[in-house]
Structures are given as structure tokens and as C-alpha cells.
Amino acid sequence: MRLRTLIHNLFSRRQIDSELDAELRAYVDMLAEEKIASGMPPPQARREARVESGGLEQVKEQVRVVRSGALIEQFVQDLTYGVRVLRRNPSFTLVAVCTLAIGLGATTAIFSVVNSVLLRPLPYAAPDSLFRVENMHYTGEFVELQRRGQSFEVAAYVTREATITGGAEPQRVAAASVSPNLMPLLGVTAQRGRALEDGDERASNGAVVVISHEFWRSRFGGDPGVLGRLVTLDGTSRTVVGVMPRDFDFPTPATQLWTPAVVDPNNRIALWSSSRQIIGRLRPGATLSQADAEVRAIAPLMRSLFPWGMPADYGQNASLIPLKQALVADVRPLLTLLLAAVGMVLLIACVNVSNLLVARTLARQRELAIRASLGAARGRIVRQVLTEGALLVLCGIVLGVPIAYFGMQVLVTSLPTDMPRSVTLALDRRLFAFAATAFAACALIVGVFPASRAAQVDLVPRMAEGERTGQSRRTRWTSNLLVGTQMALAVMLVVSAVLLARTLANLHAVSTGFAVEQVVSARISPPQFRFPNASARRDLYSQVLERAAGAPGVVSAAVTDRLPLGGEAYGSVFSIEGRPDPARTGEWPIADVSAIVSPAFFSTLGMPVQAGRTFTPDDSETSQRVAVISESLANKYWPGESPIGRRFGFPGDGDRLRTIVGVVADVKWERVTDQARTALYVPITQAAPGAMRVLVRTTGDPSGAQEHIRSIVRGIDRDTPVDRPRTMADLVATAVEGPRFAALLVTAFAVAGLLLGGIGIYGTVSDHVAQRRREFGVRVALGAQRSHVFRAMLGGTMAVVAAGTVAGLVGAAVITRLFATMLFDIAPTDPATFALAVGILAATAVLAGYLPARRASRVDPLSALRVG
Q1: Which residue of 420, 560, 562, 848 has the smallest Cβ count within 10 Å?
Q2: Is 172 strand, coil or helix?
Q3: What phi and psi values does residue 406 have, to the nearest 5 degrees?
Q4: 243 has which bridge partners?
Q5: Which of 124, 175, 158, 111 is nearest to 324 (CA)?
Q6: Distance of CA 209 to the CA centre of its chain
Q7: Among the ranges 286-295, 372-381, 501-510, which has the highest mean pLDDT value?
């Protein structure tokens, strides 16, 4: 019955209103006839009957409110009227919607990145039970954890660059050698064929490989019959047994091939000198703390298993952390900062539109008073204003969708290359929840202040005064509060942007210790099947260097297996002649970086020689074994004395010690923010080189040298791939791409916040001038100086800005500490930065408030009084 009544009321509104009107008129006529019958004159009787009935329109409204379906009907009316109001003011609507669309679109784009990297669960079965083992990375430790673990199971992998041959050109791809139980441990299956499984590591099963969806499409053209086809990987033919799904996210991004790792438990040297990443899964019923305690108990036992002595405290830092936390730890501060910054821009946009709506509501006071006089309740008026704000936000969301999509595409191509997870615009429940929350929050912020102003409508004064009254004190207070809020948020954005910009400048000012300009590097990876031993590889590099050095415009050429800032800073332990044997004490001297280089390496990179000499052609395979060390290594192990002539040896070298012949300046190896890293260098003629980087220093355009290196290697051996040719300047730029990305985006957000804040000041002050035009005219007519009016208007604006700036500085002092780890060589509360931000805000406020204040000072008294 109720449903039938509801449907009838919703779809028969005109008929019901007509019946209600007839019923009310009949009631008034009946009441008038009773009064006439009692002797009252007809005109007076009809007037008093209308008075007693309370007014037909008011009674109709009261009846409509209580009948079934009234809320739905009123909602539709509010929407219809709201659309009509916004269409009547196209300029205001366009500005408000575009402001909100930019804020909402940018926020959604940033949230999509945050969602993809930080919030989205790992694409594995039961991802919360996965963990990574920290401070345990030797293959032997992995084998022991596999054998001893009770509350967990572990798998391991090591990534590498592999060479694919058999095509027109050799190709380098990112590959991973994994324990066969890794895929089952992650709970992933192949899209085609199968994943790796136990037994694949045995030679009797043949060499197999699993490929990524991307590699399947690019190398095999998406051939459905790819299973069973051969891939020549590092000279070994491997059979494709599986293709992973498109959305498979390996813990190391961009990996395209997976091969089974072969572990020989009887080779102690290999077990305890090779390393790999160890991840694990909790067994049913086990907790992370329980597994962590078990690993901490097992780790110290590893010390006795090493073929050589290890420090007495070895293994005490072993721990487990959730896999997702481990993968995103480095980028979490960056993405959190960006989300907070763009959120501030959105908040400024909402406050700006809210301020515009407050002004619109004030201009509509007479209209609202008429609606109230016709029976509209205050709640209905408030709801109408809130609906108009919600409509603006809804339009902003619709227009913000293409902005978000475009912004997402730009972000994906601009993200730092070390982003740990793939970024996609996924329409998942988190994105929908974010959109719903953003809509509700924006609609509330946009509508609450105009609605509160509409609730204060005063019927009689507004009807009487019309448009002559200026702004009330409460209205001005509301507008000033909104402007101050915008300024506070803008201050926090500007301070953050300046701090990040100065961090970027400080990073660029850091000396890397090597030449950046006119130096090109390219990686050469000789296939094992073509160059099976160290002698063959040395011959290859010798030919490459000879041809490269003889090319026009080439100053020098060299090779190295470790490139500064190249992400290849691997070190080694050693023993020093004449000092206690670390094999017994466990206290091994350590070089953070151990590099194999050719004689011209130091001159090619412009590394100054501090003492002694560098390598020469006389340092041959049969001559005295020599080494060059870094200044920091010399200071660490030979403080206050010269290391020249001292001797040391690597584990396994026996009596074949190396003599230190030179000391060179320190260089930055991993990050430009790092302190000096200890390093030692050995000549290529006295080492076993693998893949190497060729370095060429030119006098001309370095981009031409990149292709020249390719042609040289291709002329020597067509099966040897040359990949990643790049200038050292590009390498340095990549090293600071994270700070640069953060600085550029936050600066863009700060500029947007400043523009919106300036627009807010201009709009508010202009509205104040328009509302107080009569007041200014009276002041000037009574003798006030126009300059006094100008200063009073601009001074009032600056007072509001000053209050907002103070609040913003307090907020900035708090939030900048939250991303202090992203700063370099500057304090999060740096006074100069805060002072610069205040200056920028003050200049913005003066520019925004100048024209309206000038307009106020030039009001014509006669025209102002005539209009008033």
C-alpha cells in the first residue's frame, strides 16, 4: 500500500497539487461562509478566513513535506533548481567547475600511482604471509634456512642481465635465476604451460626457461605455439615451458625470463661467496614474530659454516619484514608527500569555490528571503545551497576524469626508473572508494559555509533593504577565514617546494669525483659460448679499446666492471700483510667497491691521483700483482701513513699478494648523497673479467660515440651485445631523478596553490569592494583621503594573509619533518626557506589585492550614493 502511494505521489504530482488546492480553497470558502452567517461583512469574512488558515501557499508546503515520497520529490526539485541556477551564471559555473576539475583530476592521478604502488595487494596468493629476509643473502644461508625452518619456507632468486642470440642482433634482457620452488611459494601459475617446479634445476631434465607475457609478445609475436620453442640464452639453448600472465609482478620489476638456479651443496666456496635475495612464506598458523625469532636464532649459527672467519657478531642483524613493506620502503616517503601536496591543492580549490559560493549566496539574500516568506523552511534552503555545491563538485569530477587520465599517462612516463611496482590506472574498489570520499568531502567543504550563511537569512530586513546593505561582520569573518585557510595551505606547499628545489640544487652541486661531460659508457656482455675463459674476454676488450682509442675525436678509452653511479657497487674482503689473520679472528678488512679496470680508466674519468701511480701496460699477467686504492680506503686502514708498497690479498689467493702502487680520489658510487665509499681497483690483465663497460672520452658530440662503440663491437663479434650506451651526464641525472621528480611535481602544486590563493584573494577583496561601495562613497564624500581608503583595504587584506601565513608556517614546521629523509644538506625548518616562502606569499597577496583596493579608492561618491 505504501509503495503504491509513493508511486502515485511521485508520478501524479500535478493532479495531487490540483486536488490539494481545491480542498484548501473549499476549506477557506467554508470558513468564510460561517463568518458571513454570523453577521460579518463578506470582504472581512474572507480576509479573516485566509488569515486563520495560515496562508494557502504555506499550508501547501507543509502538506507536501509530510506526504509519502516528499524527500525524493524535494531532491529532484533541488537538483532541477540547482541546475537552473548554475546555468543562469555560466561564468561563475565555468570557473568553479574548472577549478575543482583540475584539483580532482590531479589528485586522482596521484592517488592512482599511490594505489598501484603502496595500497594494491601484491599479486600473489595470501600476500600478507610473504616476507623478505634481511641481512642474510648468501646461498649457503638460503640452503640452511630451507633445511632448518619450521614456521616458514623460503625461496631465493638472483637477477642478472642475460644475452639472447639467434636473431638479427644479440639482445640483452633482464633475467632471474630462481629456486624452482619460487613460483609455487608465491602462489602464481603460468598463463600458458607451467611455471618452474622442483626438478627443473637437474641437468637430466634439460635446460628450461619461463618467459614473461611481454617477452612472448615482443620475441614470439604472441605465438600460441610458443611452448617447446628454443631460446638461446647466454649460449645455452633452453626450452620454453611457460608464459607468465600479463599482470605478473615479479619482486624485481622488468624481469622477462626465469631460469632454474643450480645449487651445488658440496661446493662450499660457491655456497658462501655467492649471494641471492631470500623471500619466504609463513606456514599455516605461524606468525611473523614467531618466524622472525626463529631466523634470529638460526642466523648466528651460520658463522661457523663459512670457509673463512666471520665477525663474532655475524648474524645478529638478521630479521624478517613483510614483502610488500620491503618492496615499497624506498618510495613510500615520496608518494606520501605527493599525495599530501596534491591533496592541499584540492583543498585550496574547494575552499576557493566555497568562498565564491558564499559571495553568490550573499548576492541572493533577497531571493532566499522571498523563498522563506513563501513557506520554505531553513532546512530546505540550506539543502538547496548544499545541492548546488554538490552539483559543482559532480561536474568537476566528470571534467576531472580526462584530466586524471592524461595526468596518469604523464606520470607513468615521468616516474623514477626505480619504482618497485608497475603503475596502472586500475578501476578497483580503492579507487571508487577514494572517488566517493573525495566527492563527499569536496561537496561538504564547498557547501558548508554557503549553507551556513543561507541559514542565517533574515526575512524582514532583507525584504526591506533589498541590495543596499553591505556585508555583515559574520560574512566578512567567513570570507576572511576561507582566504586565510587558502594562504595557510599555500604556505605549506611553497615551503615544501622550496625545500625540495634547494635539495635538488644541493645534489647538483655535489662533486661526483669523476668527469661527467663528454664521457660515454656502454656495457659489453661477451657470450659464454663465444668467450669461454678470462683470456678470451681480455683479448676482446683489448681489441675494442684499440679500435675505440684510434677513432677520430676520442681522447681516451677504458673498460671497467664497476661504474660510478651505475648501481654496481659490489665490494670484497681482503687481508693485510703483517696484520692478524682475519680467517682466524673473523675481522676482515672490507672494501665497499672492488673494480676491475684498464690502465686508462682513471684518466678517462678524470680521477685525480693522490699518491703513487695508476696502472700501466707493464702491469701484465706475469708481472708483480698490483692494485690502486681510494683515498678513503687508505685513510681507514693506513691512517697517518703511506699505503704505497703495502701488500694485501683476497680470500683464496693464498700467497699471491697484491702491492698497492697508487691512491686515487674518492668518487660517488651508489648515490650522490653517499659519504665516501672505500674502493680498490685491480688491472684487467691480472683479473678474470666478465661483462664490462667501455668508457670513451670524446671531444665532440658524445651521442655519436655511442653508435661508434656498437659498430666497433659488431665488427669484432656480432654475437656480443652492446646495451645501455649512455653519457655519464645521463647517469648523474638518473641518480637524482627521484628528488627531481618530487621537486618538479611539488613545485607545480605550489604554483597551482598560489594561483588559486591569489584568485581567492582577488575575488574576495573584489566582492568586499562591491558590497561596501556605498560605504566608501560616503567616506570619500565626508573627506576621507583616497589613499587612506586604498591602504585600509589593502591593509585589511594583508592582515588576513598574515594570519594565514603564520598558521601555514606552523603547519609547515610539522609536515616538513615528515619528509626530512628526502632532503639533502638542508634542515626541514631552514629559516631562509621559510623567509623566502613568506616573501612569495606576500608578493602574491599584494598583486592579488592591489587592483580591488585601487578600485575601492576610486569610487565616485555621487554614483555610489545614487546607486545605494
Answers
A1: 420
A2: strand
A3: -65, -45
A4: 192, 211
A5: 124
A6: 34
A7: 286-295
C-alpha cell at 723: 646495451
As a whole number of angstroms, the longest Cα–Cα distance in the chain is 138
Residue 820, C-beta contacts closer than 8 angstroms, at least 6 positions apart: 828
Section 59-70 average pLDDT: 53
Distance CA 433, CA 443 (A): 15
Is a pLDDT exceeding 70 seen at residue 457?
Answer: no
Say whether pLDDT at 339 is over 60.
Answer: yes
> Cell 683489448 belongs to which residue?
542
* The dihedral sign for the CA sequence 579, 582, 584, 585: positive
Cβ neighbors of 67 (< 8 A, separation 6 or more) are 9, 16
Model confidence over 549-604: pLDDT tens digits? 888 888 889 999 888 888 777 888 898 998 888 877 778 888 989 999 999 999 99
Full DSSP string of 111-162: HHHHIIIIISPPSSSSGGGEEEEES--BHHHHHHHHHH-SSEEEEEEEEEEE
| Amino acid code (one letter) for 358 | V
| Of 661, 663, 685, residue with least CA distance to 607 | 663
Residue 507: its pLDDT value, please?
Answer: 86
Q: Say which range, 75-84, 92-101, 505-514, 678-687, has the weakest mean pLDDT.
A: 75-84
Reported confidence tier of residue 463, pLDDT bands at 50, 70, 90: very low
Q: Which of 602, 556, 114 is nearest to 331 (CA)?
A: 114
From the list 106, 110, 104, the residue with the least C-alpha distance to 393 is: 104
Does residue 467 register a pLDDT over 60? no
Cα–Cα distance list, 328 to 93, 289, 321 (Å): 41, 21, 12
The DSSP symbol for 275 reads: B
pLDDT of residue 462: 47
Closest alpha carbon to 103 in 434, 397, 450? 397
Beta strand 152-165 with 171-178: parallel, antiparallel or unpaired? Answer: antiparallel
User: How many C-beta atoms surround the C-beta of residue 521 within 10 A?
Assistant: 27
* C-alpha cell belonging to residue 809: 608556517
The pair phi, psi for residue 694, each rounded to 5°, is -90, 135
- Spell out the residues 6+ positions from residue 304 whose beta carbon is closer than 8 angstroms to its own: none
Q: For strands 692-698 and 554-560, give the pairing.
A: antiparallel
Considering the chain, what is the average pLDDT of its residues? 81
8-state DSSP, 575: E
What 8-state DSSP symbol labels residue 608?
Answer: P
C-alpha pair distances (Å), 107 with each of 103, 115, 116, 339: 6, 12, 14, 7
CA distance readout (Å), 773 to 465, 469, 649, 861: 15, 10, 89, 9
| The pLDDT value given to residue 157 | 92
**Burial class of residue 613, CB neighbours in 10 A (0-12, 13-18, 19+):** middle
Place of cell 480576509: 47
Q: Which three cell numbers stand for residue 43?
A: 470582504
Q: Where do the DSSP E strands lie in 179-260?
A: 192-193, 208-211, 230-233, 236-243, 257-260
Torsion of CA 676, 513, 830, 110, to 10 degrees: -100
Q: Which residues pair with 208 in a beta bridge?
A: 239
Q: What is the pLDDT of residue 370?
A: 66
| Distance separating alpha carbons of residues 82 and 7, to the nearest angstrom | 24
Residue 857 one-letter amino acid: S
pLDDT tens by residue, 729-768: 888 888 888 888 888 889 889 998 888 888 878 777 776 6
Per-residue pLDDT reduced to its tens digit, 228-271 = 998 888 778 889 999 999 888 888 878 899 999 888 777 777 77
Partners of 523 in beta bridges: 693, 723
Q: Could you tell me which residue, 213 or 27, shows the higher pLDDT?
A: 213
Residue 863: band (very low, low, confident or very high) from pLDDT cuts 50, 70, 90: low
Q: Is 54 left (phi over 0), alpha (psi -120 to 50) or beta?
A: left
SS3 assignment for 64-99 = HHHCCCHHHHHHHHHHHHHHHHHHHCHHHHHHHHHH
On the CB side of 547, CA atoms within 13 Å amount to 16
